[in-house]
Amino acid sequence: MKTLGKIVAIHSYKGGTGKTLLSINLAVTLAKQRKKVCLLDLDFRAPSLATLLKVGKVEHWLNDYLNGVCEIDKVLIDLSETIADQGKFFVGLANPSVEAIRDMSSKDRKWEMRALGRLLSLRNSLLSAKGFDYIIFDTSPGLQYSSINAIVSADVVIVASTLDSSDVEGTRRMLRELYDLFEKKTEIVLNKILYEDSLRSGKEKLQALVKETYEVPLLGVIPCYCDISRAEGKTIFVHEKPNHPFTRIMSEIATRIDKM
Ligand SMILES: Nc1ncnc2c1ncn2[C@@H]1O[C@H](COP(=O)(O)OP(=O)(O)OP(=O)(O)O)[C@@H](O)[C@H]1O
Ligand SMILES: [Mg+2]
Questions:
Q1: Residue 211: what pLDDT?
Q2: pLDDT per position as a tens digit, 108-147
Q3: Which domain holds residue 122?
Q4: Which of 29, 57, 112, 140 could form a disulfide with 254 if both were Cys (CB 3.0 to 4.6 A apart)?
Q5: Which ligand has an atom closest to residue 11 CA?
Q6: Distance 48 CA to ligand 1 centre (A)
Q7: Is residue 116 part of a domain?
Q8: Beta carbons of 30 and 84 less than 8 angstroms apart
Q9: How far apart are the C-alpha atoms of 45 and 20, rounded to whole Å?
Q10: Cα 129 from Cα 247, distance rounded (Å)
Q11: Is the CB of 193 under 6 A from ligand 1?
Q12: Does residue 129 belong to any structural domain of this protein?
């Protein structure tokens, strides 16, 4: 019998650490490894996947699913053809309209509890019933309810951090004080690392630093690549640049997650 798939949440303390870049490229990497993957944009504060994936008219948003207005099947968009490979790649998008962003930021605690119930039920509706191998959540930074709900619903949480000192300190506190409560399998991806720094200190030193500072394992180190900045968020990097070192790193990260 096929084992049940995994829910992976990508989170961070600060904004702009690379959650969206990691989420989409991890999702597509897994799909290219013949997995059935569903990428969900849970960043209702600043939705970005609709633009990034150049999706046209959207009938139903994740907002509608969490509001209890429609079922998840209505929200999912099949983009398997975009990656033209053996795997399956579906997305569920957050509504980027100003009205929807304002609506989501005004939800009360009772609504958030119901939304948590709807996120938790994805395990049955997508992993068990529809046979997805992975659900990947792209989240908002920090400790707002939508991100906490994503962490609570996930099997594995990947925390993206840079070496910026306020990011390091905030991530350390968040991991010790919040994540400890949830007892989730958590690993760190260091992103935007200057290539010279990673060469100088070596992977082992970074590994020791992460273990000592965060007390969780290091899943991967991603250098700061001008090519990524140059792409201006308009391409799915691992798809467009199969031979780029970033694509190789994403492949290693995906394989490690798959083995967890
Ligand atoms: N390793 C990298 N090298 C170069 N640029 C990067 C790298 N990682 C991310 N970026 C760039 O940094 C910016 C922020 O990345 P991204 O949107 O993925 O972060 P985020 O954590 O999702 O941000 P937010 O918290 O606002 O949702 C983007 O322009 C992205 O292209
Ligand atoms: Mg983002």
A1: 87
A2: 999 999 999 999 999 999 999 999 999 999 999 999 889 9
A3: 6-259
A4: 29
A5: 1
A6: 11
A7: yes
A8: no
A9: 13
A10: 31
A11: no
A12: yes
Ligand 1, atom 13, residue with closest C-alpha: 16
Gap between the Cα atoms of 204 and 209, Å rounded: 9
Tell me the pLDDT band of 196, cut-offs 50, 70 and 90. low
How far is 139 from 13, CA to CA, in rounded Å? 11
Residue 1 lies in a domain: no
At 111 the three-state DSSP class reads helix
- What is the CA(85)–ligand 2 centre distance, in A? 25
The number of the ligand 1 atom at minimal distance from the alpha carbon of 22 is 18
Q: Determine the distance separating the centroid of ligand 2 and the alpha carbon of 202, expressed in angstroms.
A: 28
- Which residue has its alpha carbon closest to ligand 1 atom 31? 229
Question: How long is the chain?
Answer: 260
- The pairing of beta strand 156-161 with beta strand 6-11: parallel
Q: Which residue has the tokens 């969490």?
A: 66
Residue 236 backbone phi and psi in degrees, to 5: -90, 105
192 in contact with ligand 1, CB cutoff 6 A: yes
Does residue 233's CB lie within 6 angstroms of at least one atom of ligand 1?
A: yes
Q: Is 225 in the pocket of ligand 1 (CB under 6 A)?
A: yes
Residue 138 CB contacts under 8 Å (≥ 6 apart), including other chains: 10, 19, 20, 23, 24, 39, 40, 41, 42, 43, 48, 49
Report residue 9 as tokens. Answer: 């949440």
Asked whether 228 lines ligand 1 (CB < 6 A), one says yes
